[in-house]
């Protein structure tokens, strides 16, 4: 088996587990009936911790997608 393929495969598994943990850490966004008109956003601001967690989640998601594309389209052969 190609060592680069094996490293990419292991990286996908590690990144996937990390992404699951990041998603679990997010605060629930349930706004109830106030979410329909957008009035719930008026009284609650986004904290810095949530913004940082969102940024890290998007970065890890992008890395996961790129690794899946590399493996899926056969850029690295087994």
Mean pLDDT: 83
Low-confidence stretches: none
Alpha plus pi helix count? 4
Cα-based radius of gyration, to the nearest Å? 18 Å
Tell me the domain tally.
1
The helicity comes to over 70%
Overview of this protein structure:
By secondary structure, the protein is an all-alpha fold. The chain has one domain. It contains four helices and no strands. Helix 1 (3-25) packs antiparallel against helix 4. The longest helix has 25 residues, at 48-72. It is elongated, with a radius of gyration of 18 Å. It starts with a helix and ends in a 6-residue tail after the last helix. The model has no long low-confidence stretch (mean pLDDT 83).
List the helices and strands and how they pair.
Blueprint: H1 3-25, H2 34-37, H3 39-43, H4 48-72
Helix pairs in contact: 1-4
Summarize the structure.
This protein has one domain (1-24, 44-78).
Features:
mainly alpha, 4 helices, elongated
